[in-house]
Amino acid sequence: MFKSATNFRHQSQPAIGSREDSLFDKSFWLNVIDAAIYLRRFNRITGKPSRSAIYMLVQRGALRPKKYRGMLYFNPNELFRIIDSSSSGSA
Question: 16 or 47: whose pLDDT is higher?
Answer without folding.
Answer: 47
